[in-house]
Design brief:
By secondary structure, the chain is an alpha+beta fold. The chain contains 35 helices and 28 strands. α28 runs parallel beside α31.
Length: about 950
C-alpha cells in the first residue's frame, strides 16, 4: 500500500484486529517500515509535532488598546486643544506665563498610560500549547528495516513499530501488537486515578469510550510497568493530544462581564458628551448670532469632553483587581488573568473534574466484606489510622479477628511502600496497593514487620489476562522447627496446620472466587457452599454499584515452593478471605463547599472521564446530585446534537466517561443557555474546556502545566472549597467597583453640567480647564475611589444568587443614582458659581476677577470628599458606621484635601494649574457649599429609611 492511500486517521483502530491494522498501514510487526516508506510518510504526514497557529502580534495587541471609544475621544480632544494652543502661540494671544500644549501633553500622557495598562493585562502569551509539547517524549525506540534503532520522536510516522517499557513517555498514538503486564498512567488524558491495564489481543466495539480503549496507547501518557510493542497509528495533530491542541487553539477568548460593562459605559458617556457638546455649541452660536466666540465655545466643549471621561477609572479598576488578587493568594487562589477577579463574582455554574479536584486522588478503602459481615472503614487519605464500624458501631479487632487475617493478605500480597514524607503519608507505587497498605495499617498490620514474619520466596505477578497476582511466603517459626503455637502470629494461626509456606492471592473477585473451594470464617476454615458463593458475588455487585473498585482475597497453605510458571495449577483450591472495596475518596472539605455553592445560587456539576457508577457515588456523597439523578455518559452525549445537549444540560449534574471534546461541548452548551461557567480541572484533557469556560480553574499541586497555562486561576491547595472563598472575593470586588463607579461618575456628570451652564447663564470664560479636570478625575476622584475599593464585604454576600453577568453597568439603580447625584452636584456648583462670579466682579473686589473659577474648582473637589465619606454605605448613616473600619477612606479624604489646597496656596502649583489665591472668606464659602453634598446624601438615606426602601 502506498503512502498516498494510507488512512487519514478515520480508522477506528481499537475495533480492528492487530493483523488488519498492520495491513492497513502496510507495516510488519517484526521488521517495521523500510527507509523508502518512512520518507514517503514523512512527506505526507509531516513531523510528529504539535503545530501552533499564529495569534495576534505584540503591535496588534498594543494598537487594539487605543480603539477604546473613550480613549479615541480623548485623543481627539488633545489634538484640538493642541491646535488651539498652536493658533494662540502663533498669533501671540496666549496669556502671560501660560505654558502652551500642557493640556495636550497631559491628556496624551493619560491616554498612553491607559493603553499600557490594557496592554500589560492582555499581552500575556498563551503558553498552553508549549506546555502540551513538553508531554511528548524526545526519543523513542522503534523497529525499522528489521533493526532496533533509537530516533527522535518527531521522526515517527504512521506504520512505525514502537517498543515500550516502564518509565517511558509514549510519543504517538498506537495499536498494541503485543504486551506483557503493561500498565499505563492515562489520568492526564482520561481523568482516571489508577493506571490502565492494556491488552493487545482484544477487539473492541467502535463506540468504546477513550478511557476503555485498552488495546490502544496514547501520546503523552506514561508506562508504569510492563512492556509492549505498538503499531503507530496517529502522529502530530491527529493524535488525541493533537486534537486537544487543535481545540485549545480554536477557543476564542470572550470579553469578561467587566470588560463588556466598561465598553457599554464608554459608549453611553461618549454619546451623551457629544450630544451635550452639540447643544452648547449650537446654543452659543445662536445666542451670539454668529461664530465670534467660537474659540471660547470650543474650549468649553473640550473641557466637557475631558470631564465626561473618567480618566482615572481604568487605573482604579486595575489596582482594585490587583488588590483582589493579593487577598485571593492569601486564600490559596492564584489569579493568572486580572479580570478574572471580578468575573468570579458572576459564576452561576461550576463544572468540576472529579479526580484530584473533588476527590483526593488517593484510593481509600471504604468497605470490607469478610465472615459474612460488611465493615465500614473510617479514615482519610493514606494515613494508616482509622476505625472499623459494623452497623454504624465501632468494633474492636479482638471481636473480629477476620479483619486482621484479611489485612495480612493486603500487606503481604503488595509491591508498594507506604511512607511518611514531610509530615504527610505518601505511597510509592500503585495507588490501589497503597490503599491496601493503609487498610492494613488501620488494623495494626505493618508491612515491614510482616515481611520478616512472612518473607517472600516466590510470586506469580499480575497480568491483565489472569487479573490476579499471588505471593508465596515462608512462615517463620514453622520453618525453624518451632511449634506452631509458639512461633506463628495469632493473626494467621488459623491459616495453617504444619505447612511451612503460605500463598496469598488477590485480584478480580469473580475469578479469584472461582478458584476457591473453602472459606475462612473467624478462626476456622470450612467448605465454601454455593449459598456462600452467591452471597459473596451479590456483595461484590453491591459494592460495584456504589462505584467501588473491588478486589477479592484468598490464601492457600503450601508444603513446598511451587515451581516458576505453575500459577495455573498452584492457584487452585484456595481459601476465600474476603472482599475489599475502595474509592478515590472525596475531599472532606468539599461537602461543605458544595453546600455553600448552593446557598450562593451556584450549581455544581461533575464532569469526569471515570466510570458512571463511581461518578454517581462521589456526586451523591458530596451533594452534587441526588439519588436517582440521571448520569449522562460520553456515548450518549456523542449521539446528541448540540441542540439536544443544550436542552438537557440544565437537567444533568453528572457526566461520566467523557472525552475532551465532550467537556468542551458541555461548557459551550451551558454558555448558550446563558450560564456563566467556571470549569475546574487538572489534566491535559481539561485544557480546552478550561480555556472555553468563563473562568478556567486549574489545580496547583496535581495540575499539569497544560491545564495551568489554559486557566484563569490556579488553586494552590487543590481545594475545591477555595473556589467558594475566591467567588466571595469576586462578589466583593464587583460590589466595590460599582460603588466607586457611582462615586466617580456622579461627580463627572456634575462637572459636565457645570461647565455647560457657564455660557448658558452668561458667565464669561470656561470655569474649568482640561488640566484642572484631569486633576479632579485622577487625584480628587482617584484616591478616594481606591480607598472605597477595599470596603469590607456585606454580611449576606454569599447568601444571595449571583447578579447576572449580562446585567448593564447601570442596572439596579446605579444609573439613576449617577444622574441624580450629578444633578445635585451641578445645582450646588452652579449656585456657588453664580455667587462667586458676582462676588469677584463686584466693583469693590480687590483680587483676581477669575478667582470665581478657582472657587468652582475647589468646591467640586471638596464636595467629592463628603461624597466619599457618605457613599461607604447605601443604607447606614455615616454616624452609624465605625469610621476606622476603612481607615483608607479617611486617609484619602485628608490627603486629597491637603493636595487641593496646595494647588490654591503654593505659588508654583497655582501658576501651573491656572488657579488663583482665595481668602479665608472665599475658602469658607467653598467648604460650606461643598458640605451640602454630604448633607444631601445622608438626607436621602433617612428619606429611604422612612419610606421603607433599601438603596442599591
Amino acid at each position: 500500500m502506498s503512502a498516498n492511500s494510507l488512512p487519514e486517521g478515520a480508522a477506528v483502530w481499537h475495533s480492528l484486529e492487530v493483523d488488519k491494522a498492520l495491513d492497513l498501514l502496510d507495516s510488519n510487526a517484526d521488521s517495521g517500515l523500510t527507509p523508502q516508506d518512512i520518507q514517503q510518510r514523512l512527506q505526507k504526514y509531516g513531523p510528529n509535532e504539535l503545530q501552533e497557529v499564529a495569534g495576534r502580534s505584540t503591535w496588534e495587541i498594543l494598537l487594539d488598546q487605543f480603539k477604546n471609544i473613550m480613549l479615541l475621544m480623548l485623543i481627539g480632544v488633545a489634538l484640538i486643544s493642541g491646535l488651539i494652543d498652536l493658533w494662540g502661540w502663533r498669533n501671540g494671544t496666549l496669556k502671560a506665563g501660560e505654558v502652551p500644549f500642557k493640556d495636550t501633553i497631559a491628556i496624551l500622557a493619560i491616554v498612553i498610560l491607559n493603553g499600557i495598562l490594557g496592554y500589560v493585562q492582555e499581552s500575556r502569551a498563551e503558553k498552553a500549547l508549549a506546555a502540551l509539547k513538553k508531554l511528548t517524549s524526545p526519543l523513542v525506540r522503534v523497529m525499522r528495516d528489521a533493526r532496533l534503532v533509537e530516533i527522535a520522536a518527531k521522526e515517527l510516522v504512521p506504520g512505525d513499530v514502537m517498543l515500550l517499557e516502564a518509565g517511558m513517555q509514549i510519543a504517538a498514538d498506537g495499536r498494541l501488537i503485543e504486551q506483557s503486564n503493561l500498565q499505563i498512567r492515562e489520568s492526564a488524558l482520561t481523568g482516571e486515578a489508577h493506571a490502565a491495564s492494556k491488552q493487545a489481543t482484544l477487539k473492541l466495539p467502535e463506540e468504546t469510550d477513550l478511557g476503555d480503549r485498552i488495546n490502544l496507547v496514547f501520546q503523552g501518557t506514561e508506562v508504569v510497568q510492563g512492556r509492549g510493542k505498538v503499531l503507530v497509528t496517529n502522529t502530530g495533530m491527529t493524535t488525541e493530544l493533537g486534537k486537544i491542541a487543535t481545540m485549545l487553539q480554536s477557543v476564542e477568548s470572550e470579553p469578561t462581564p467587566l470588560q463588556r460593562r466598561m465598553t457599554q459605559l464608554g459608549n453611553v458617556l461618549v454619546t451623551g458628551s457629544l450630544i451635550l457638546v452639540a447643544i452648547v455649541v449650537v446654543g452659543g452660536v445662536i445666542k451670539d448670532q454668529g461664530f465670534k466666540n467660537i474659540q471660547e465655545l470650543l474650549e468649553i466643549s473640550l473641557s466637557m469632553a475631558v470631564a465626561v471621561v473618567p480618566e482615572g477609572l481604568p487605573a482604579v479598576i486595575t489596582v482594585t483587581l490587583a488588590l483582589g488578587t493579593q487577598r485571593m493568594v492569601r486564600q490559596n487562589a492564584l489569579i493568572r488573568k486580572l479580570p478574572a477577579v471580578e468575573t468570579l463574582g458572576s459564576v452561576t455554574t461550576i463544572c468540576s473534574d472529579k479526580t484530584g479536584t473533588l476527590t483526593q486522588n488517593k484510593m481509600v478503602v471504604q468497605s470490607v466484606f469478610t465472615n459474612n459481615k460488611t465493615f465500614r472503614v473510617i479514615g482519610e487519605g493514606y494515613t494508616p489510622t482509622g476505625d472499623f464500624q459494623l452497623d454504624g458501631q465501632k468494633i474492636s479487632l479482638e471481636e473480629s479477628p477476620e479483619i486482621s487475617a484479611l489485612s495480612v493478605a493486603c500487606a503481604i500480597c503488595n509491591d508498594s511502600v507506604l511512607q511518611k514524607e514531610q509530615g504527610e503519608w505518601a505511597i510509592l507505587g500503585d495507588p490501589t496497593e497503597g490503599a491496601l497498605l493503609t487498610l492494613a495499617g488501620k488494623a495494626g498490620i505493618e508491612k515491614d514487620q510482616w515481611n520478616s514474619k512472612l518473607p517472600r520466596v516466590r510470586e506469580f505477578p499480575f497480568s491483565s489476562e489472569r487479573k490476579r497476582m499471588s505471593v508465596i511466603s515462608q512462615v517463620q517459626g514453622v520453618a525453624t522447627g518451632e511449634a506452631s503455637s509458639r512461633g506463628i502470629d495469632p493473626a494467621i494461626a488459623g491459616f495453617l496446620q504444619s505447612e511451612p509456606y503460605l500463598m496469598f492471592t488477590k485480584g478480580s473477585p469473580e475469578l479469584t472466587l472461582a478458584r476457591c473451594t473453602q472459606i475462612h470464617l473467624g478462626d476456622d476454615t470450612g467448605t465454601l457452599t454455593e449459598a456462600q458463593r452467591q452471597n459473596i458475588l451479590a456483595e461484590n455487585d453491591k459494592m460495584a454499584s456504589k462505584g467501588l473498585r473491588v478486589l477479592g482475597f484468598a490464601y492457600k497453605p503450601l508444603a513446598e515452593i511451587p515451581p516458576e510458571g505453575s500459577d495455573e495449577t498452584s492457584e487452585q483450591d484456595l481459601v476465600w478471605l474476603g472482599l475489599v472495596g475502595m474509592l478515590d475518596a472525596p475531599r472532606p472539605e468539599v461537602r461543605a463547599a458544595v453546600q455553600q455553592c448552593r446557598e450562593a445560587g451556584i450549581r455544581p456539576v461533575m464532569i469526569t472521564g471515570d466510570h458512571q457508577l463511581t461518578a454517581r457515588a462521589i456526586a451523591t456523597d458530596l451533594g452534587i446530585a441526588q439519588e436517582g439523578d440521571r448520569v449522562l455518559t460520553g456515548q450518549e452525549l456523542q449521539r446528541m446534537t448540540d441542540q439536544e445537549l443544550e436542552q438537557n444540560v440544565d437537567l444533568v449534574s453528572i457526566y461520566a466517561r467523557v472525552s475532551p471534546e465532550h467537556k468542551l461541548r458541555i461548557v459551550q452548551a451551558l454558555q448558550r443557555r446563558g450560564r456563566f461557567v467556571a470549569m475546574t480541572g487538572d489534566g491535559v484533557n481539561d485544557a480546552p474546556a478550561l480555556k472555553q469556560a468563563d473562568i478556567g480553574i486549574a489545580m496547583g499541586i496535581t495540575g499539569t502545566d497544560v491545564s495551568k497555562e489554559a486557566s484563569d486561576m490556579v488553586l494552590l491547595d487543590d481545594n475545591f472549597a477555595t473556589i467558594v472563598s475566591a467567588t466571595k472575593e469576586g462578589r466583593v470586588v464587583y460590589t466595590n467597583i460599582r460603588r466607586f463607579i457611582k462615586y466617580i461618575l456622579g461627580s463627572n456628570i456634575g462637572e459636565v453640567l457645570t461647565i455647560a451652564a457657564a455660557p448658558l447663564i452668561g458667565l464669561g470664560g470656561v470655569p474649568l480647564t482640561p488640566l484642572q479636570i484631569l486633576w479632579m478625575n485622577l487625584v480628587t476622584d482617584g484616591l478616594p475611589a481606591l480607598a472605597l475599593a477595599v470596603e469590607p464585604p456585606e454580611p449576606d454576600v454569599m447568601q444571595r444568587p449571583p447578579f447576572s453577568p449580562r446585567e448593564s453597568i447601570f442596572a439596579r439603580g446605579l444609573g439613576s443614582y449617577m444622574i441624580r447625584i450629578g444633578i445635585i452636584f451641578a445645582i450646588i456648583s452652579i449656585a456657588l458659581m453664580w455667587w462667586a462670579y458676582q462676588h469677584t466682579h463686584a466693583p469693590e473686589y480687590q483680587g483676581n476677577r477669575d478667582a470665581w473659577k478657582t472657587m468652582v474648582f475647589t468646591t467640586l473637589c471638596l464636595a467629592q470628599m463628603g461624597h466619599a465619606i457618605a457613599i461607604r454605605s447605601n443604607n447606614r448613616l455615616t454616624i452609624e458606621m465605625n469610621p476606622f473600619s476603612n481607615i483608607f477612606v479617611l486617609a484619602a479624604v485628608v490627603v486629597t484635601t491637603i493636595l487641593q489646597l496646595m494647588l490654591v496656596y503654593v505659588p508654583p502649583l497655582r501658576d501651573f494649574f491656572g488657579t488663583h489665591y482665595l481668602n479665608l472668606e472665599e475658602l469658607g464659602v467653598c467648604i460650606g457649599f461643598s458640605a451640602l453634598m454630604f448633607v444631601w446624601i445622608e438626607a436621602e438615606k433617612i428619606f429611604l429609611r422612612i419610606m421603607g426602601k433599601k438603596a442599591v
